[in-house]
Design a protein that fits this description.
The protein is mainly β and about 160 residues long. It has one helix at about 80-90; strands spanning about 5, 20-25, 30-35, 35-55, 55-75, 100-105, 110-130, 140-145, 150-155. The protein has one domain (about 5-155): Pnp Oxidase, Chain A. Strands 1, 2, 3, 4, 5, 6, 7, 8 and 9 form a 9-stranded mixed sheet that branches. β4 and β5 form a beta hairpin. About 15% of the residues are buried.
Length: about 160
């Protein structure tokens, strides 16, 4: 498979990003392609802070604990066992299962439109959809990657 090309288009910040394919690359792992990105979640809990002084009681909302960032991706089930093997490493408690990887959003021509760096990512959930004998509908693998941090690379 040919390597993705980096876009040389202008860096107009008003251009919407769309993708035809999503690819995860990491050290010690083959490239994995996905057909759907269900979502990227980054969240900070809200902490309420109650204080009082001579003017009265005030309630303010502050930054709370950060929740681990997650990325949910989907792909058709095929003979490639890279996701399953990676998830098995997590189930076995192997520290090397945490991998920094890149999630690339590619257009129809294979040009990278945006890249997200997932720091210390690991597949916390792997779900294979139901299958029926004789059904022509493909089974879908859904993976949730949990990571310590997500950084977006500007193009």
């Amino acid at each position: 498979m040919a390597l993705p090309r980096v876009s040389t288009a202008s860096t107009n910040t008003n251009t919407l990003v769309s993708a035809a394919r999503f690819v995860i690359t990491a050290d010690r792992m083959a490239e994995i392609s996905f057909s759907e990105l269900s979502g990227i979640t980054s969240e900070v809990e809200v902490a309420e802070y109650l204080s009082s002084n001579r003017l009265g009681v005030s309630l303010s909302k502050q930054f709370g604990r950060t929740k681990p960032a997650t990325v949910v991706l989907k792909r058709g089930v095929d003979q490639d066992l890279a996701l399953w093997t990676w998830h098995q490493e997590v189930l076995a408690g192997q520290p090397t299962a945490r991998r920094s990887c890149s999630l690339m959003l590619l257009d129809m021509a294979g040009v990278i439109k945006q890249t997200y760096d997932l720091i210390n990512a690991w597949p916390s959930k792997l779900d294979i959809s139901a299958m029926s004998a004789g059904d022509s509908k493909p089974s879908i693998a859904t993976v949730t990657l949990t990571c310590e941090q997500i950084d977006v690379k500007q193009r």
